[in-house]
Specification:
Structural class: alpha/beta
Mean pLDDT: 93
Helix content: 25-40%
Number of strands: 6
Oligomer: single chain
Distance between the termini: 31 Å
Shape: globular
Strand content: 15-25%
Low-confidence stretches: 1-6
């Protein structure tokens, strides 16, 4: 009997980065919710939370003969191994946070390990739900050659009723979870489409 080889979709590895360092931040809650949603209801995609808290401030003096500090090397390896990225980006003073920009800068040092990958952005907050950070992050993405999904966008109005998060930053709102799942599905579809074009 002839064996039949079944073609399977590759498992996409998603690196999730949080621009807030606070343990109970809404943005960390969004990423943990994304990880649960992916595990429970999206096949072919795995999300890994990539911690940026140990990264030193970007400083070329820390680069020695093309070698970066151990924490930076480990971070860059995680970014290079990922197929795509999920950014939870708070809005600080109409822009991205310092820690997130610092992480982006380290991974863009030669060789740029972000290049030609797909990414999505989610945020939470008051007023615009953190939305202004999206637009600055998209501008940064142009130079480092990231391809952001355009739709759907997710700006969570965290302080409006009904409550979206509990006191520990855990996402509890079912409508927001549904919108987050739509972002993840769009990220998966775009990443797979780009990978096929590159094969």
């Amino acid at each position: 009997m002839q064996s039949v080889v079944m073609a399977t979709e590759p498992v996409l590895k998603v690196a999730a980065l949080c621009g807030s360092l606070r343990e109970a931040s809404f943005h960390r809650g969004l990423l943990h919710a994304a990880m649960e949603i992916c595990k429970d209801s999206i096949k072919g995609m795995e999300i890994e939370y990539v911690d940026i808290t140990s990264l030193p401030f970007m400083n070329e003096d820390l680069e020695v003969n093309g070698i970066y500090p151990p924490a930076v090397e480990a971070f860059r390896q995680k970014i290079e191994e990922a197929d795509c990225y999920l950014f939870a980006s708070p809005e600080y003073n109409y822009s991205v946070t310092g820690p997130l920009k610092n992480a982006i800068d380290w991974a863009s040092r030669p060789p740029n390990v972000w290049a030609d990958k797909v990414a999505a952005i989610v945020s939470a907050g008051g007023n615009f739900g953190g939305g202004r950070s999206h637009y600055h992050l998209r501008q940064i993405g142009i130079f480092i050659d990231l391809h952001f999904i355009n739709k759907p966008e997710l700006f969570v109005y965290a302080f409006e009723s009904p409550p979206k998060f509990d006191s520990n930053g855990v996402l509890t709102d079912e409508e927001t979870k549904s919108r987050l799942r739509a972002v993840l599905l769009a990220l998966q579809a775009f990443a797979l489409r780009l990978k096929r074009k590159c094969e």
